[in-house]
Amino acid sequence: MRLVVIGGVAAGMSAAARARRCDPSLDIQVLEKGGSVAWGACGLPYYVEGQVTSLDQLVRYTPEYFRRERDIDVRTGAEVTAISHCRREVSLANGERIPYDRLVIATGARPTRSGIDGAGQPHVFTLGSMGDAHRLKAFLSDRKPQRAAVIGAGYLGLEMTEVLRTHGAEVTVFEASEGVLGRQDAALTALVREHLARFRVELRTLERVGRVGESAVNGVPCDIVLLAAGWQPNVELAADAGIEIGRTGAIRVSERMETNLGGVFAAGDCAETVHLVTGKPEYMPLGTTANKMGRVAGANAAGRRERLAGVAGTMIVRVCGLGIAVTGLSECQARRNSLDAVSAAIDGISKPRYFFGTPARVELVAERRSGRLLGGSVIGEDGVKGRIDVIAAAVSSRMRLDEFEQLDLAYAPPFAPVWDPLLIAAQQLRKLV
Ligand SMILES: Cc1cc2nc3c(=O)[nH]c(=O)nc-3n(C[C@H](O)[C@H](O)[C@H](O)COP(=O)(O)OP(=O)(O)OC[C@H]3O[C@@H](n4cnc5c(N)ncnc54)[C@H](O)[C@@H]3O)c2cc1C
Fold this sequence. Notes:
This protein is of the alpha/beta class.
């Protein structure tokens, strides 16, 4: 039996590797149109910043590694141009046809450019590929732009704000919605705005950009523009083959990652997933999600029956030294999903003052009637990752606030205060539910 995987990054290689583990006899072929596989786009901002010195450092495994160690045939420079499910074969750009019994589509996503006139100008950049990163870095070192516009205050826009500041540019961030990280959280956005202002970064929310000028965006002068306005799933190949596209614009899959065509799976940034709190289909193009979806797709393509319950949309980003992390729903998002939500935020400290603790803000959101934890956010300079992961685990396991409040979290002065900010936030919120 032959499994063909289209796309060789997070979702595609996870699918291939998992399928191999599940069925050592499977003939597995990965078709990747680019020159590298199994590389981490998440490191691109840090290459542009200079912390990562070579793009090669982002490549985790080579095609040779997969051939030698996993018996997986990986072909680079192999673009799939059509899927014929009735013939169970894919066609390549060079005319070759490759048969399959099972197919995993992991074609990823591309940066959104639609709706923005002037996006093709030489001072306008996106960051989705190694080529993008290379061009952007060269522009920054050759031209030394003084004023930058970032369009979009999602994780990439915020990360790149820090990078552009490191390169000496003053930055204005334009965000069409009311808040950062797609979160509809006024308090979180206000905190981020205040923090950014200290670094001469202006955050303008509710300000849509429809056109990029030669030297200005919405009247604000700039000599470089970074488009970080979201991701467009690469679904054309699938749609042409009769695969159903969901209302999010990404490929619709079951919890087994199977599409409407039997034996054809989709995973990663090209496909939608389910939000663990709302139970609704969502589009969450993240590396964490892509890897998990890929594993499940690979297992099922190899004959197992595995499912992905969904994801909580956990995200963490560093911007100008501040860690910002979110998971589940904000109070506003919960209300928009018809949940009777309450929230409490506390300003705590990451560890005792005598151990140089820094401010740690924690917000928790719960459903009033059931006390079920729906989401939360953590902001601070240290301990952010650990704390958001605790909230994410609680949200994922549908923990109630009274259970959360009693969690036996670790304590020693170099790491945390005896009352962790998470527990203090839970105590505050319990007064409201
Ligand atoms: C700059 C940047 C920073 C990021 N930072 C983070 C982060 O901090 N945390 C996080 O969780 N996520 C982050 N992400 C998101 C994460 O990288 C993606 O979610 C993840 O790479 C998606 O993996 P994927 O395999 O679904 O898609 P992709 O990585 O997009 O891979 C899809 C592959 O399919 C190939 N392909 C497409 N069409 C065809 C075809 N027709 N034939 C053959 N091959 C094809 C493409 O060439 C591509 O290599 C970041 C992304 C970027 C760009």
